Amino acid sequence: MTVTKNLKPTGLAVLAAGAMLALAACSPAAPDVTSSSAGTSAAASSTSTVTASASPTPSPGTSATVGKIVEGFPESLIPVMPGATVISSSLDKAKQPATAALVASITAPTAAVMDFYTKHLEGQGFKAVPGDAVGTVASKDFVRNDNETVNVAVVEAAGVSTFTIGANVAVESAK
């Protein structure tokens, strides 16, 4: 697969959205929307009130950090590619499946990043799912035991590949 050096805004948006989803340790509840109506003779009027929920509180076993590997991160499951710089990482072992995410960059081509993680994950029993891209973004999914998944997505610009890895695995695998 060839990835051009000029990123299209949609490709970068897909990577950014994937990174944000992967790093979300918990999500806030949907807003409480209540409606009331009052009638007057033949016409009825209605009003809506939206109440925002409180900010989410991290649960025990959930952590994230910027610029380094978070404590307890399963580096045997998702190692940092040699020469890569960690942008952020997160880990949530509070629920099943456990969720781990890594965002990093390296001055290596997209193919080298994909090859490194494909070999590593297949060595751990993950099987690659058909497909190598989502739109113009290099993206590969892996499955193990029908209930553990890993996604590797890479965007390359100006000779730098930025990659996001998100894993949903058994808590025992996130060690």
Distance between the termini: 33 Å
State mean pLDDT (0 to 100 scale). Answer: 74
SSE-based structural type? alpha+beta
Based on CA atoms alone, the radius of gyration comes out at 20 Å
Unreliable runs: 1-57
Number of helices: 2
Can you describe what's shown?
The protein is an alpha+beta fold and 175 residues long. It has a domain of 111 residues. It contains two helices and ten strands. The strands form two sheets. Strands 3, 4, 5, 6, 7, 8, 9 and 10 form an eight-stranded antiparallel beta sheet that branches. It has a two-stranded antiparallel ribbon with strand order 1-2. β7 and β8 form a beta hairpin. The two termini are 33 Å apart. The relative contact order is 0.20.
Write the layout of secondary structure elements.
Blueprint lengths: L8 H15 L8 E9 L2 E9 L10 E5 L18 E8 L5 E9 L3 H14 L3 E2 L4 E2 L2 E8 L3 E10 L2 E10 L6
Antiparallel strand pairs: 1-2, 3-4, 4-5, 5-10, 6-8, 7-8, 8-9, 9-10
Features:
175 residues; alpha+beta; eight-stranded antiparallel sheet; two-stranded antiparallel sheet; 2 helices; 17% helix; disordered N terminus
Brief rundown of the structure:
This protein has a domain of 111 residues. The chain is built from two helices and ten strands; from the N terminus they run αβββββαβββββ.
